[in-house]
Amino acid sequence: MSRHHRAQKWSTHSPKLRKLIEPQLPLRCVNCPHAVMPGDKFQVGHITDAMDGGTPTLSNVGPSHDYCERCARRCNQSAGGKRGARVTNAQRRTRSNSSKGIRAW
Questions:
Q1: Which residue has the higher pLDDT, 52 or 10?
Q2: Which of 6, 36, 34, 5 is nearest to 21 (CA)?
Q3: CA 62, CA 60: separation in Å to the nearest integer?
Q4: Residue 105 covered by a domain
Q5: Is residue 103 part of a domain?
Q6: According to the model, what pLDDT value does residue 10 have?
Q7: Residue 5's pLDDT is what?
Q8: Angstrom distance (rounded) from CA 33 to CA 105
Q9: Cβ distance 36 to 25 under 8 Å?
Q10: Residue 41 placed within a domain
Q11: CA distances (Å), 51 to each of 2, 69, 80, in order?
């Protein structure tokens, strides 16, 4: 978990939002096309990531499978991992190009 999400303002929202989302199930997973059904384990996932200006409000979050049987993956963790890889790889490309004297577009 990132330092950003360990901050108290983020860590206290998830349990509260989970209680608000749970009675509304079944809802579509925010990371895959399948529904999160009542009784399924789920995490609270962002529709717009915090890095992109998303807020932890009910209008910007939804259920995300803890483990989706149909996708055979952990939806929320997989989405976060992909996002982290994009950020890390972009930083590496920028560093390696600048060390070779190649300017960014």
A1: 52
A2: 36
A3: 7
A4: no
A5: no
A6: 56
A7: 60
A8: 35
A9: yes
A10: yes
A11: 12, 29, 11
Q: What is the DSSP letter of 29?
A: -
Assess contact for 74 and 66: CB atoms under 8 A: yes
Query: In whole angstroms, what is the distance from residue 77 CA to residue 65 CA?
Result: 9
CA-based torsion, 21, 24, 26, 31: positive or negative: negative
pLDDT confidence bin for 74, thresholds 50/70/90: confident
Strand partners, 63: 44
CA distance 10 to 26: 25
- Which residue shows structure tokens 């952990």? 74
Look at residue 104 and tell me if it is in a domain. no
**Which range of residues forms the domain containing residue 51?**
3-98
Sorted by sequence, the CB contacts under 8 Å of residue 54 that are 6+ apart come out as 46, 47, 48, 60
The count of structural domains within the chain is 1
pLDDT at 99: 59
